[in-house]
Amino acid sequence: MKDLFKGDMMINLIKLSFDIGDLTINAFNAIIESDIIINYDNIDLDDLDSYIRDKEIILRQEDESEEDSNVYSNIKKGYSLIELAISKSYNNVTVICSNSSNIYGIANLLIQISSKHEDVELKIYPGVSPIDYSSAVLGAPLNDFAAIDLNNPIESSNELENKIKMALENDFVLFVHNLKGNEFISNEDQNNNYNRLKEIVSDFNEDLLVGIVNDNYSYEICKFKDIRDEVINESSTLIIGNKLTYRLEDYMVTSCDYIVKPKFISQNMDFFERYLKDETPKGIDYDCDYLPCHKKLESCDFCYCPFYPCADGLTGGEWIKGKNVWSCQHCDWIHLEEPCKAIREGLDDILKEPNDLKTKHIELLKLRRECLLKTLK
Amino acid sequence: MKDLFKGDMMINLIKLSFDIGDLTINAFNAIIESDIIINYDNIDLDDLDSYIRDKEIILRQEDESEEDSNVYSNIKKGYSLIELAISKSYNNVTVICSNSSNIYGIANLLIQISSKHEDVELKIYPGVSPIDYSSAVLGAPLNDFAAIDLNNPIESSNELENKIKMALENDFVLFVHNLKGNEFISNEDQNNNYNRLKEIVSDFNEDLLVGIVNDNYSYEICKFKDIRDEVINESSTLIIGNKLTYRLEDYMVTSCDYIVKPKFISQNMDFFERYLKDETPKGIDYDCDYLPCHKKLESCDFCYCPFYPCADGLTGGEWIKGKNVWSCQHCDWIHLEEPCKAIREGLDDILKEPNDLKTKHIELLKLRRECLLKTLK
User: Fold this and answer.
1) Does A9 have pLDDT greater than 90?
2) In degrees rounded to 5, what are phi and psi of residue A98?
3) Residues of chain A positioned with their CB less than 8 A from the CB of B366
4) Degrees (nearest 5) of the Cα angle A136, A137, A143?
5) Contact list, B144 vs chain A (CB under 8 Å)
6) pTM over 0.90
7) Are A298 and A304 in contact (CB under 8 A)?
């Protein structure tokens, strides 16, 4: 938002999420103070009715004039509405647009329009984007991520495919929007783009977790291969997780650097005291009374886990409800040969004495992340 | 947000941008209705004072107890506060955290905490993220983009570097946050990460446009090589544009598929009538009375532009203020040999008759984008 308002006329751009309650206070005030409201995408504004009853409201008309080629009808009309408002020289115009189909396009259009005129000042209001909306609905699926418009009418399919592949190969979480209902592109092309996305992701890893979010806070979380195409509509966005994304109760979570504080246990310390003296078992410890303690047991090298408590459900660990105890009962990863090998290699550089378990926990979790990315499918 | 509230206790998670006015209506109401507010990042809540005066508010204490290793102090304290609230079994707890340093981490932490307890329900409120905030302040810099946390304490420098390189090579706009002030990482490492980012981007293209956004809506837009390190603080985010990003007045804009409706001009039609008959000049037309019409004139092949009006300031075109005319006077790109060659190759497949200029404008702008990505530095 520019510091100085120089213009004689103000245009406020407000993007409205699916829920009026997701309007920010600043955006709401801007609506109240404006003379005229351009309802760019003909959104249902009933919840605002009592506040905007006195204002002129322009909807986009759906009539098709002769020289109105369909390809342009949408933008042309929105554009014409704004030019109309400018020509009527209102002091304070508010443009409300949906942000479900396009995240940043309209701002670009309005900047172009305001650049055509003297004394027209544009105010773009930060708002809840589909990215925030989707990630809040799903829980915490996003760390580093790539946001991709699946139907950019002027982007080559080659460019689109490279972006998707690159994002997957670099373990970005993938946010995909504008899946359907783009009037600039034929339905056939849109289906092709969607099917191409599905091919590319499936070829890479069809077991990746995906969240499908629609309006009204409805959502589904499933493996990518289990997507039900029929739930996808104009409002849908996809968040495709990476290797570190898992399901925790009703949430989609991507394991990150925010971890619950560790509580160290003495047995752990004792074990690594012996580990450092090379007195702990290698491979499966057939003399152990607890054998077989885990389902997929291939190695007892880390009978106690150097990452305990990782407090990260990705590998099967979980909190014992009501108690403050992190249980590794269902974590098999630490007992598989490949991870053990990878961990051993990195551990020697970090762990010099048992107390390092405590003081170097971040370094240890960094090693864990490296080994997870290396060894998880 | 989950459909059913099953728990006896509700925890609301609200991320607060730099401006209280950027709170959503839903988030604001949640604050009003809560019994206790956990001010996780000790944010200044003065503007809310009259609404929350009656409520218990817990700040994070800065005391350092013995077993409190600095690495954990931050999360431990926040975590302890929430556990404390849970132990006191309030009905309605609201956790307010800043979103300037970490976009999605706290949600992850709260999901972990709620999973430790029976009957604790978590509500995550969609809010204005630094991504929305920064892009609104700068104008319209984002299309497809990659969001990268520069200081993830458990990410290897290798992983970070690959993500940055890949994003640049695939023409993603790059959003970078958490540049400074991460207490999990030494200042030395944070400086290394920042310097590595600068090296990688500079090696790729030091002329890329970058927007630096701080709190209070302050920002700078400059070429990447001209970044002034001293303006970067804990609140800063960077948006590094791609080849298609340019400056329009005070805005940072990335050219996209939202274009002002074209107005076709008869001269254009006439020219391409002759072009299709191969009657237009090749190379520089020395017989032309208007020569030299452009600064860097290498070719008159497209004396008239097949993309007119692109309405895209990227290549130097601009609206003549107050008139509805798009001027190409300062666009040299269309008169350089390399672009002309690239355009010629693609144009034959699209343009069969002059009227295609009108009916196939999207295809033409798609060709333009391809040629821009191919020929711009």
Assistant:
1) no
2) -75, 150
3) 153-156
4) 45
5) 146-149, 152, 163
6) yes
7) no
